[in-house]
Amino acid sequence: MNARFGAIVIEKKYVRDDLKKNLPVLYNFLVVHNIVSAVLPILEEGQKIHITFDKSLPRSRITEFNHYVEEKASYLSFERGNNLPVDLP
């Protein structure tokens, strides 16, 4: 199965003030939590999730993001009783 997602749009007036001040946390939740939560139930054995997230970010931020994806996918997979192998660059 191949899947592509295009955009996540939010109305900033509905975002909590603390998240507006901490955009990496907001982006992690919007992108990772929502996408991983939607994709995990339909993944079949051997399939992988590949997320590309704003390559203009500094390497340290990309590393943090990748770690968050791994942790979130592992947690959600465990919560659902699956063993999802996480393989990120």
Characterization of the model:
This protein has helices at 17-20, 23-39, 59-79. The model has no long low-confidence stretch (mean pLDDT 76). The chain has one domain (12-79). The protein is mostly helical and 89 residues long. Helix content is 47%, strand content 0%. The radius of gyration is 14 Å and the shape is globular. The protein has 3 helices and no strands.
Total domain count:
1
Main β sheet profile: none
Specify the helix fraction band: 40-55%
Task: Please give the count of helices.
Answer: 3
Number of strands: 0
List unreliable stretches of 5+ residues: none
Question: Any key phrases for this structure?
Answer:
mainly alpha; 47% helix; 3 helices; 89 residues
Quick structural gist:
By secondary structure, the protein is mostly helical. The protein has helices spanning 17-20, 23-39, 59-79. Helix 2 (23-39) packs across helix 3 (59-79).
Blueprint of the fold:
Blueprint: H1 17-20, H2 23-39, H3 59-79
Helix pairs in contact: 2-3
